[in-house]
C-alpha cells in the first residue's frame, strides 16, 4: 500500500464520519482511521534523488516505481532502468545531464520484506 493510497483512504473515512452517523459507524471509521495512520507512520520516506534510488538498487535493495509491476534494475553496462516485470520492456531511470527521473520521485518505493 502506497502512502498516497493510505492518504486517499483517510479522506474517504473522514467523509464517512459526520452528523447523523450511528455510534457503531463512527467507532468503526475511527478504528480504521487509527489503523491507516499507523500505516503512514510505518511508510518509508520518499526518495529525494535519482542518486538515492541508484544507491539503493546497487546495494541490493528492490525498488519499485508506481506499483510492484515496475522494478528499477541495473543492467550489466551499469545503466539503471525501470523494467515492467510483465513484459520486460524497459525505460531509463532518468534522462538528461541533470538526471531527471522518468517518473515522480515520490512514486518510487522500496519493496517490503518478502516481496
Outline:
With 115 residues, the chain is an alpha+beta fold.
Question: What layout of secondary structure does this protein have?
Answer:
Layout: H1 3-16, H2 23-42, H3 50-58, E1 63-65, E2 67-74, E3 80-84, E4 90-92, E5 94-95, E6 100-101, E7 108-110
Helix pairs in contact: 1-2
- Structural class by helix and strand composition: alpha+beta
Instruction: Please bin the fraction of helical residues.
Output: 25-40%
Approximate strand percentage: 15-25%
Mean pLDDT: 82
Total separate domains: 2
* Helix and strand element order: HHHEEEEEEE
Based on CA atoms alone, the radius of gyration comes out at: 18 Å
What spatial order of strands do you see in the largest sheet? Answer: 4-3-2-1-7
- Major sheet: 5 strands, antiparallel
Inertia-based shape: elongated
Low confidence ranges: none
- How far is the first residue's CA from the last residue's CA? 13 Å
β-strand number: 7
Secondary structure tally, helices:
3
Amino acid at each position: 500500500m502506497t502512502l498516497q493510497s493510505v492518504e486517499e483512504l483517510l479522506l474517504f473515512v473522514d467523509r464517512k464520519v459526520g452528523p447523523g452517523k450511528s455510534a457503531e459507524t463512527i467507532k468503526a471509521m475511527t478504528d480504521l482511521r487509527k489503523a491507516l495512520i499507523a500505516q503512514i507512520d510505518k511508510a518509508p520516506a520518499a526518495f529525494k534523488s535519482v542518486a538515492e534510488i541508484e544507491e539503493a538498487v546497487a546495494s541490493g535493495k528492490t525498488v519499485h516505481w508506481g506499483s510492484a509491476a515496475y522494478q528499477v534494475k541495473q543492467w550489466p553496462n551499469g545503466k539503471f532502468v525501470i523494467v515492467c516485470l510483465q513484459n520486460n520492456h524497459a525505460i531509463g531511470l532518468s534522462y538528461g545531464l541533470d538526471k531527471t527521473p522518468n517518473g515522480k520521485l515520490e512514486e518510487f518505493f522500496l519493496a517490503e520484506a518478502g516481496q
